[in-house]
Amino acid sequence: MTFDRESATEAIEALRSIHRSAQILEVELRFARRQPEAEKLWTLNVRLAQDIDVLSGRAVEQWLGHAGAMLEKLRHARRGLLAALDRILDETTTPQQMAEAMGFVDEALQIAAQLGAGC
Q1: What is the distance between the alpha carbons of residues 20 and 71, in angstroms, rounded to a whole number?
Q2: Model confidence pLDDT, tens digit, residues 3-27
Q3: Neighbours of 57 (CB within 10 A)
Q4: Closest by alpha carbon to 82, among 33, 8, 24, 29?
Q5: Which whole-number Å values give the CA distances from 63 to 8, 54, 74, in the listed order?
Q6: Distance between CA 39 and CA 64 in Å, rounded?
């Protein structure tokens, strides 16, 4: 799998954005005394941070080529997590929506793994 320079930069930034949003979500869950969910999200986010570090440390030039599908998946995960974060900040979240939010972080992990396999 290869990406052009702009797409590779956008992919890494999308992963970083998801990571930041997941950190905010984790803190909000802890304030809401929802420790089991916060811990699960923390675990996912640690893995995501590690994957981002690995991807950032690799030669981005190895990604030069096709980016469309991966970028769209990352955009979807970022939009979904941001929407979930808004619901949680409004304290209107349900357990199903919380699971959905964690699913977006997991989706980003899967995409990061696919990106890493292409390097």
Answers
A1: 18
A2: 566 777 788 888 899 999 999 989 9
A3: 9
A4: 24
A5: 7, 14, 16
A6: 36
Amino acid in position 81: L
- Return all residues near 34 (Cβ < 8 A) that are at least 6 apart: 98
CA distance 107 to 116: 14
Domain positions in the chain are 5-61+68-117
Helix axes 68-89, 95-117, angle to 10 degrees: 150
Given a cut of 90, is residue 45 above it in pLDDT? yes
Q: Does this model's pTM top 0.85?
A: no
Q: Are 32 and 62 in contact (CB under 8 A)?
A: no
CA-CA distance, 95 to 101, in Å (whole number)?
A: 10
- What token pair was written down for 112? 């990061």
Residue 78 to residue 76: CA distance in whole angstroms: 5
